[in-house]
């Protein structure tokens, strides 16, 4: 039997109090175990804590930031000194969701790129764009069933290796080996709506579709099953992405010596901020 409206409100308030108590009592290792056990932990943080807090008090609660208009939150990950996550406020399972390819989908990659400032705030210095990266894991290499884009520093040796693609012809794939695994790499001259704010809304939307990494990878992975095996990383092609462009790095579980994750190309210790 469905719950009545008062009962649903009471139930939601009880859940909110429960999660608040967990936050106070939960050490980092315990929270990590919770996330591993509960694949919906990120969604519960967003939906039951951060969004209600922003709506009720104008503050993001446990999250670093909540953008109700653009429909995402930024959450500091418990792993690493500087890692943050962009998480939709809509229920979106991950890279395999058809929603990420919809014409009306938010500009998650552009918003994640703009949010790299939280990484820089964590390490208390400005970093070149080719030392910052965004990454999403495949369905088979993640612990959470809510879409989240990792925002963090790049491994220094990976940035050095990717420098050979800094002048690639835009829009063309080139294969390379990074960290012992195969990835294909494409340079873009724009990423979503990031450098097109002066254009009108229709042009912005068209550009977002053309330069959306989800849609680029989906061109030859045309169904949810194929997309579920993909991993995507985005980083600056050079120190200034506005000048040098961006690199989309893609691999998949079904690629020869491929991978369903590019997270190892990020450095959650952010050694590049210390000159390492």
From TrEMBL:
InterPro entries, per this entry?
Answer: CDP-diacylglyc_Pase, HIT-like_sf
**Molecular-function GO term, any one:** CDP-diacylglycerol diphosphatase activity
Intracellular or extracellular location(s)? Cell membrane
The signal peptide, as residue positions, is 1-35
Membership in a protein family: Belongs to the Cdh family.
Q: Would I find Metal-binding among this entry's keywords?
A: no
Give me the gene this protein comes from: cdh
The reply to whether Protease figures as a keyword in the UniProt entry is: no
| Coiled-coil residues | none
Record pathway = Lipid metabolism; Phospholipid metabolism; CDP-diacylglycerol degradation; phosphatidate from CDP-diacylglycerol: step 1/1
Query: In which domain of life is the source organism classified?
Result: Bacteria
| Recorded topology in the membrane | Single-pass membrane protein
Quote the EC number: 3.6.1.26
Q: Which reaction does it catalyse?
A: a CDP-1,2-diacyl-sn-glycerol + H2O = a 1,2-diacyl-sn-glycero-3-phosphate + CMP + 2 H(+)
Q: What is this protein called?
A: CDP-diacylglycerol pyrophosphatase
- Entry keyword set: Cell membrane, Hydrolase, Lipid biosynthesis, Lipid metabolism, Membrane, Phospholipid biosynthesis, Phospholipid metabolism, Signal, Transmembrane, Transmembrane helix
């Amino acid at each position: 039997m469905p719950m009545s409206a008062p009962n649903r409100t009471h139930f939601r308030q009880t859940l909110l109090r429960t999660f608040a108590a967990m936050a106070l009592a939960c050490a980092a290792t315990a929270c990590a175990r919770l996330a591993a056990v509960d694949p919906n932990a990120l969604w519960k943080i967003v939906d039951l804590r951060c969004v209600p807090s922003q709506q009720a008090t104008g503050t993001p609660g446990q999250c670093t930031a909540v953008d109700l208009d653009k429909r995402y939150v930024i959450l500091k990950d418990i792993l690493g000194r500087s890692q943050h996550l962009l998480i939709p406020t809509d229920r979106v399972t991950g890279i395999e969701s058809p929603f990420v390819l919809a014409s009306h989908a938010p500009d998650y990659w552009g918003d994640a790129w703009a949010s790299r400032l939280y990484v820089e705030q964590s390490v208390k210095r400005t970093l070149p764009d080719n030392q910052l990266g965004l990454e999403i894991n495949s369905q088979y290499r993640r612990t959470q069933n809510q879409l989240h884009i990792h925002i963090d520093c790049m491994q220094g040796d990976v940035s050095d290796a990717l420098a050979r693609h800094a002048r690639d012809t835009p829009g063309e794939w080139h294969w390379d080996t990074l960290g012992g695994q195969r990835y294909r790499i494409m340079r873009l001259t724009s990423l979503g709506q990031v450098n097109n704010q002066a254009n009108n809304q229709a042009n912005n939307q068209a550009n977002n579709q053309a330069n959306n990494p989800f849609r680029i990878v989906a061109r030859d992975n045309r169904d949810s099953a194929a997309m579920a095996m993909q991993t995507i990383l985005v980083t600056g092609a050079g120190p200034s992405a506005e000048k040098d462009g961006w690199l989309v790095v893609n691999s998949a579980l079904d690629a020869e010596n491929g991978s369903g994750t590019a997270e190892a190309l990020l450095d959650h210790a952010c050694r590049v901020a210390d000159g390492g």
